[in-house]
Specification:
By secondary structure, the protein is mostly helical. It has one domain. The chain contains five helices and no strands. The longest helix is centred in the middle third of the chain and has 16 residues. The N terminus is likely disordered.
């Protein structure tokens, strides 16, 4: 009998518990070296994630990397009114801040 550490890695194990999972989401087979598999298993366990969640987060980070501003910067861009000349205002702000 195999012990849990000797069993082959099965990234679809959790998906098998949800009968609608495979009909809604396509499967992806990924071949990794044994050290990579062990790392992924340890990382997901330590962080309370599934392999699917890890891959989805990685996918999201890659998509953000394609955007030169990134999601957080885009959220902040509308905080300063367009009519304010930030290039002129910021040096004035620094002089006032550091002259006190």
């Amino acid at each position: 009998m195999e012990t849990p550490s000797q069993k082959p890695f099965n990234s679809t194990a959790r998906a098998g518990h949800n009968p609608s999972f495979s009909s809604v989401n396509p499967k992806l087979t990924v071949r990794l070296s044994r050290p990579s598999v062990e790392f992924v298993k340890a990382y997901t366990k330590a962080n309370g994630l599934t392999v699917t969640e890890l891959i989805e987060r990685f996918d999201a980070s890659l998509r953000l990397a394609e955007d030169p501003l990134g999601g957080d910067v885009k959220k902040l861009t509308d905080l300063i009114p367009v009519e304010i000349d930030t290039r002129a205002e910021y040096p004035q702000h620094l002089r006032g801040k550091h002259s006190q």
